[in-house]
Design brief:
heterodimer; A: 727 residues; five-stranded antiparallel β-sheet; 10 helices; 39 strands; 25% strand; B: 423 residues; alpha+beta
Chain lengths: 727, 423
């Protein structure tokens, strides 16, 4: 009976002491990240029976458990991964947002300055200082484009090192988790099923850190180890073994780094979009869905401005009376050959139509001979290309420069990616700005009628040559000007005979089929001067070929119009092709539209018989500002998105889009952070240490200890009394 | 509910961080004066602000263009004002020269004076904008447009008119070609020119005439009016009659061979046999009408030719020639009449050009007002879009400050509460 008292009191003291230690541990770890509070598990000892029932034997400490809720902890992990993703994405995008919309650093003011300077040239076309200002402002605009592009490149480069840092962290966490798996497994085995609480906390903390880098899912095994999966189910940790991630060059786009999964010395590139959440997910999404589209968009703005001004400058005469050349350098679309390509094909691309150009990148997949699939990567829209290259899709002309492709080969075509980087001013000669139009109309001083000539314009609209059915001889061709300015021309087809129209001459040979067409369009990539590209339509069935491939309109061939007021006709001499044999009728008083030799003009008023109007090369026209006006007004011309967007508007769209995405991320990341705070609060309300509670526990266990000690003292006194009885 | 002690600290730190971030944002808005610090603050407004800045920039550019256009137009206008004065002086001189009491030497001295005015006029026509660009050369502003050649004053410019973009939708011409101002002046009355033959011996003086019926006009035709003085029958009184002949060769259908016709063209109806002449009575045929005053002699001839372009220079040098030739009587009157007519035409032409300049200047002024209003609107819209509302911002800042202070004070209180303080 006495020993019972002793053991019972001792067990109480023992339990109180363990309780005090645990409280002490909780207090000590109040600031330890990932620590979950621990609690002593005690239970009363089964009583020993005596006649009247059971007498309590004291208390047993069955273990120390951590107050832990699997559900809450998993939720914290998920929310944290998402919050880390959003915050990182937001911080990355914010850098870009600050840059492009800045009123001083953005490209919009620079472009405005350029057009404003061009307007000054239109006011004073002879002024060298005004022209110099255009060149300086062109350089300013170019610098802005390049600087923004450079900044985007820097961000992109630093992303690579950030991704690499994240990948290193992931690998390190994986190894630590694997090591802890081992320790926990052994601790459980040696502790006979008791949980090593602090090791578990440490492992949970590592998983939490891992989730900040990349979204991972976990599975607890019965032996206490934890398996970790990432991506689309790739095992990162199993038991004591850790796999690793590594960075590899993208097989599609060698300028990019992709993340590969490494297992047993083989590495497999992961589907980048499967790496969601966390820093890595944010970096990859930012790079692929924000940074590169923005660079493409910026490139398209730069390309639109450069090509538009180039084309207009080429359609004019400079201060020396020479034909204008390109003012800006325009980057050719970048084409990357797939790393794993088997064939030796070299693909090149050029811009054929600014209006149709998108900001997307494209992947060209080879299916077989003359059979390709073009994937527009922004929306994964597929275009099947059958037939020999070159072919034009979305305004990009894709050409097989050399070699032969093999089925399975792929090419990445990035039409506008380099445009902002490579835009440059091609001249430092102020005279090179072609402010004058290439031709002028002159009314003879001897004219007695009241007719006057309008200012006129170049006619560079695309032209189609269509053929009739060769089975119904004679086969004819019809040349049509898409603008309708020049009259259509029909003739009998004789293979190899020159066909002239609107000032240029070409030849078609071979046997064109019924409805075969040939087009002559402006070559947007010509640098030196205006060139028109002749090409057969892809739907042609005959063997007709057109040559030369490039024809020039040089506005050096004058033509003149002579009126006969009595017969109400006029004759045109000097036109190519010659039309002097046919008088054309006109209605006195209504405007007379003329378009010959690449020049369109209007005669208004009433001409008298014998009145002559001559259209001649505009030599010595230092004061002509017609072309400068057109260049200054280019900022209003909607050349992008099929004639709906100007370059300035395209830039403000870019700013708007970047701003909208940043704003969205600012809101969602803040909301997500609040969400994290809430989940952590919930998880902590269960597992966190409350110092007041611990203080209370401290008192409670102290009192319990004191009470148990008192009980021991009592039993000791009782024992003494017993001994005294005996003595 | 249990509260973890760490949560008390963490949530307070987070809350204070957010409050501070908001305060910083407001403070930055106040210091920069801009509501939109980055596009993300208000993406729609940011893109809209860019568009409006673009429109505003262009509006400013149009204002600069208008300024330049006004300057050019004023320079041209000042020049043409001098030309007007000069032409008026020449006209006065021509009227003076017709004074019957003037001697040949008086007229020659007038001619000499006019020679000086002609050179002055050439100077005006070749005037520059002050930096060497000719005002009246069309596009070829570095080419001297008016050069005296053996064949008379030649124009070496072109018909180019320089345009200025004075508003988004309006281009106006800021120049007039020299040909339009100085060269393309219709002779006679604008449709035809009556001239007395130099060999005339009578005192017939012709008027400039006018068009009575434009539908009857035969464009491009020339006529010969010949007087005959003699009796209708032998011994009868001398009658003065005239016959009008159309001397324009008839239009020949293409391909037909034309045989030379040695005969005079047939007289124009109704003057088949000659019309009796009465001084000052209207002579009309083919829709045109003029009169001849005085006494023509037998064989005196007048011609009617279609109006052609005659330059001011030719007009003045013709006048000088008339005066230097020391003519008398009808020849002088005919010559002076013709010159006066052409001087009037020249003056009219210059005044027409000047009035069109005036109209353009007025339009530019009107567009200036419109442009300023537009600019004001743009600036207001921009200000609404991107400028900070100071009242709101400062009140926000005060509120945020109060909130932060409250958070700090309560945190200190809450954090100070601990059971450990009592044991």
């Amino acid at each position: 009976m006495g020993s019972n008292l002793f053991t019972s009191a001792l067990s109480g003291m023992n339990a109180a002491q363990i309780g005090l230690s645990t409280t002490q541990h909780n207090i000590a770890n109040v600031n330890t990240p990932g620590f979950t509070r621990q609690e002593v598990q005690i239970s009363s000892r089964a009583g020993s029976p005596f006649g009247g029932g059971f007498i309590g034997q004291g208390v047993d400490v069955s273990g120390v458990r951590r107050i832990y809720d699997q559900f809450l902890s998993t939720q914290v992990l998920q929310e944290q991964a998402q919050a880390s993703y959003l915050t990182t994405y937001y911080n990355a995008l914010k850098q870009v947002d600050n840059l492009i919309a800045d009123p001083a650093a953005g490209a919009a003011p620079a472009m405005r300055e350029f057009f404003s300077a061009m307007s000054s040239v239109a006011n004073n076309p002879e002024s060298i200082p005004a022209r110099q200002t255009v060149l300086s402002n062109a350089q300013y605009a170019v610098n802005r484009f390049q600087a923004i592009d450079q900044r985007l490149t820097n961000i992109s480069d630093s992303l690579n090192s950030q991704i690499s840092g994240s990948v290193d962290s992931v690998n390190s966490y994986a190894q630590q988790i694997a090591a802890l798996n081992g320790s926990i497994k052994r601790a459980i085995a040696t502790g006979q099923g008791q949980q090593p609480n602090d090791l578990l906390d440490q492992r949970d903390q590592l998983v939490s850190k891992l989730n900040l880098e990349v979204k991972a899912t976990t599975l607890r095994q019965t032996d206490g180890t934890m398996s970790v999966f990432i991506g689309s189910g790739q095992t990162l940790v199993v038991d004591e073994q850790a796999m690793s991630l590594q960075m590899v060059k993208s097989a599609i786009d060698p300028s990019k780094m992709d993340i590969a999964y490494r297992n047993n010395n083989t590495s497999v590139t992961l589907q980048q979009s499967s790496l969601r959440g966390g820093n890595i997910g944010a970096y990859l999404t930012f790079r692929d869905q924000s940074l590169e589209p923005m660079r493409n968009e910026l490139g398209r703005v730069a390309m639109g401005m450069a090509m538009g001004i180039n084309q207009q400058n080429q359609a004019g005469l400079d201060l020396r009376g020479q034909k204008g050349a390109a003012l800006f350098n325009v980057a050719a679309p970048r084409v990357d050959t797939g790393v794993n390509n088997q064939g030796n094909a070299v693909i090149s691309a050029s811009i054929a139509d600014l209006g149709a150009l998108t900001t997307s990148d494209y992947q060209l997949k080879v299916n077989g001979a003359n059979n390709y699939t073009l994937v527009r990567l922004s929306d994964n829209f597929l275009t099947n290309i059958t037939g020999a290259l070159p072919q034009t899709v979305d305004g990009i002309k894709i050409n097989l420069a050399s070699g032969a492709p093999v089925a399975g080969d792929s090419f990445l075509i990035r039409p506008t990616a380099n445009a902002a980087r490579d835009i440059a001013v091609m001249t430092n000669d102020p005279a090179a700005i072609a402010a004058a139009a290439p031709m002028r109309g002159v009314a003879s001083l001897a004219n007695t009628g009241s007719a006057t000539i309008g200012s006129g314009a170049v006619n560079l609209s695309p032209v189609t040559i269509a053929f009739s059915d060769p089975a119904l001889p004679p086969q004819t061709y019809t040349v049509t000007d898409s603008s309708g300015a020049a009259a259509p021309l029909t003739g009998n087809y004789v293979a190899g005979n020159p066909i002239s129209y609107n000032g240029w001459t070409t030849q078609i040979a071979g046997a064109p089929g019924a409805n075969d067409k040939f087009t002559i369009t402006r070559d947007l990539n010509s640098i030196a001067t205006v060139a028109m590209l002749a090409a057969p339509a892809s739907t042609n069935v005959g063997t007709g070929t057109i040559s030369p491939a490039s024809v020039n309109i040089d506005w050096t061939t004058p033509f003149s119009v002579t009126f006969d007021a009595v017969a109400q006709t006029y004759t045109v001499t000097g036109a190519v092709p010659d039309v002097s044999a046919t008088p054309f009728a006109y209605t006195p008083g209504s405007p007379i539209n003329l378009s010959y030799n690449g020049w369109t003009a209007q005669i208004n008023g009433t001409p008298a018989t014998g009145d002559v109007f001559t259209f001649e090369p505009n030599t010595g026209a230092t004061g002509d500002n017609r072309n400068a006006l057109l260049m200054a007004n280019f900022q209003n011309s909607n050349i992008l998105d099929n004639g709906t967007t100007s370059v300035q508007a395209a830039y403000s769209q870019l700013v708007g889009r970047a701003g909208a995405k940043t704003a969205e991320l600012a809101v969602t990341s803040e909301a997500q952070n609040n969400m994290v705070t809430e989940t952590i609060k919930a998880q902590q309300s269960m597992s966190g240490v409350n110092l007041d509670e611990e203080a209370a526990n401290l008192l409670r266990f102290q009192r319990a200890y004191e009470a148990a000690a008192k009980a021991l003292q009592v039993s000791n006194t009782m024992f003494d009394a017993l001994l005294a009885l005996g003595g | 509910m249990r509260i973890s002690s760490n949560v008390i600290y963490d949530s307070n730190v987070t809350a204070m961080g957010q409050l501070q971030a908001r305060m910083l944002q407001t403070q930055q808005q106040i210091t920069s004066g801009r509501r939109i610090l980055t596009a993300a603050d208000d993406p729609v407004a940011a893109a809209r602000a860019l568009d409006i800045s673009q429109s505003d920039g262009m509006n400013n550019q149009y204002a600069a263009n208008r300024q330049a256009a006004k300057h050019t137009l004023s320079v041209v206008e000042a020049n043409l004002q001098s030309v007007t004065t000069l032409l008026q002086d020449v006209k006065t001189a021509a009227v003076t020269a017709g004074n019957g009491s003037f001697t040949d030497s008086d007229r020659i001295s007038i001619a000499n004076e006019l020679q000086g005015r002609l050179e002055e006029l050439t100077g005006y026509a070749n005037s520059t904008d002050g930096i060497g660009n000719y005002l009246f050369a069309g596009y070829q502003t570095r080419t001297q447009p008016f050069v005296d050649t053996p064949a008379g004053m030649g124009y070496f410019g072109d018909d180019g008119q320089r345009l200025a973009q004075v508003s988004a939708s309006r281009q106006i011409s800021t120049s007039n070609s020299g040909a339009d101002v100085f060269m393309r002046i219709k002779s006679g009355n604008g449709t035809f020119l009556t001239q007395a033959a130099a060999a005339n011996t009578g005192t017939g003086v012709t008027s400039a005439g006018s068009v009575t019926d434009s539908t009857l006009l035969k464009a491009g035709h020339t006529y010969n009016l010949t007087f005959s003085v003699g009796p209708d029958f032998p011994g009868g009184p001398d009658l003065t009659k005239y016959i009008v002949r159309d001397t324009t060769p008839p239009a020949v259908p293409p391909g037909t061979q034309v045989l030379p016709d040695p005969l005079l063209p047939p007289p124009v109806a109704p003057a088949v046999l000659g019309v009796p002449y009465v001084s000052g009575q209207a002579i009309s045929f083919d829709g045109l009408q003029f009169d001849i005053q005085g006494v023509p002699t037998n064989g005196d001839t007048f011609t009617v030719v279609p109006s052609a372009n005659e330059s001011m220079f030719t007009t003045i040098s013709d006048l000088i020639d008339v005066l230097k030739a020391t003519p008398v009587g009808a020849s002088l009157t005919n010559g002076l009449n013709r010159s006066l007519n052409h001087l009037d035409n020249a003056l009219n032409n210059v005044l027409t050009v000047r009035s069109s300049l005036g109209v353009r200047l007025n339009e530019v002024e009107a567009l200036d007002v419109e442009g300023e209003n537009l600019g004001l609107q743009f600036r207001q819209s921009l200000s609404l879009l991107q400028d900070v509302d100071y009242n709101k911002a400062i009140s926000d800042l005060t509120m945020q400050q109060t909130a932060l202070q409250a958070a700090q004070q309560t945190f200190a209180k809450v954090a100070g509460l601990s059971l450990f303080n009592y044991i």
